[in-house]
C-alpha cells in the first residue's frame, strides 16, 4: 500500500509496490490525462512531475513514489491557464494531442527551473517524441511561456464561462 500526494491530495493506493505509477494514476485515481506510450520511459507521453522533476510514470513504481509529491496534467492547471498550455495554443503547437500532456509537464518542469531557456536548453530537456513533428512550434511556445512567466508577455485572455438560456439549465 503506497501513500503519496497526487495533485496536492494525499492518496493511498492499494496496489502492489511494483505497479507503475502510470497505471495507479490512470486506473486507480482516474486521472487519464497521463498517456501510455512506449512503456520504457523514452517517448515522454506519460510524463508527470515528481517532487519538481519531470519523470516518466511508466517506469516509476508506486514503491519508488511512496511519500513523494506527484503532479499530473490535471493538477498542473485545472482551468488550463498554465503559461505552457496557453503558449501551446497561441503558437498552434498542438496537432493530434496524444503527446501534449507529457510535453506540457516536461516543459512546465523545465520552466520552473529555468524561465528563460535557450533553444539548446529546451532541446536537451524535452526528449518527448511527437509523431506530428511540432518541434519548431514547440520551441517557440516554450520560450513564449517563459516570457509569460517572467511577466514580459501577457497570457491569452480566457473566455467567459458558457451560460445557457435554455429552461432548466
UniProtKB/TrEMBL annotation:
Arranged from A to Z, the UniProt key words for this protein are:
2Fe-2S, Iron, Iron-sulfur, Metal-binding, Oxidoreductase
| SUPFAM superfamilies reported in the protein's UniProt record | 2Fe-2S ferredoxin-like (SSF54292), CO dehydrogenase ISP C-domain like (SSF47741)
Q: Does the keyword Oxidoreductase apply?
A: yes
Limits of the 2Fe-2S ferredoxin-type domain = 1-76
Q: Which PROSITE patterns match?
A: 2FE2S_FER_1 (PS00197), 2FE2S_FER_2 (PS51085)
Per the UniProt record, one Pfam family is Fer2_2
Q: Which protein are we looking at? A: (2Fe-2S)-binding protein
Organism from which the protein derives: Novosphingobium cyanobacteriorum
Amino acid at each position: 500500500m503506497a501513500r503519496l500526494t497526487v495533485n496536492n491530495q494525499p492518496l493511498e493506493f492499494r496496489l502492489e509496490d511494483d505497479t507503475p505509477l502510470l497505471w495507479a494514476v490512470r486506473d486507480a485515481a482516474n486521472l487519464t490525462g497521463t498517456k501510455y506510450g512506449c512503456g520504457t520511459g523514452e517517448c515522454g507521453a506519460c510524463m508527470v512531475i515528481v517532487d519538481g522533476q519531470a519523470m516518466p510514470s511508466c517506469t516509476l513504481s508506486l514503491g519508488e513514489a511512496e511519500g513523494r509529491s506527484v503532479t499530473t496534467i490535471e493538477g498542473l492547471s485545472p482551468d488550463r491557464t498554465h503559461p505552457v498550455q496557453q503558449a501551446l495554443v497561441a503558437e498552434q503547437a498542438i496537432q493530434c494531442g496524444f503527446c501534449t500532456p507529457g510535453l506540457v509537464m516536461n516543459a512546465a518542469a523545465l520552466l520552473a527551473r529555468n524561465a528563460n531557456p535557450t533553444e539548446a536548453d529546451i532541446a536537451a530537456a524535452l526528449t518527448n517524441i511527437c509523431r506530428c513533428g511540432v518541434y519548431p512550434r514547440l520551441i517557440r511556445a516554450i520560450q513564449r511561456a517563459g516570457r509569460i512567466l517572467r511577466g514580459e508577455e501577457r497570457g491569452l485572455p480566457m473566455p467567459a464561462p458558457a451560460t445557457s438560456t435554455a429552461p432548466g439549465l
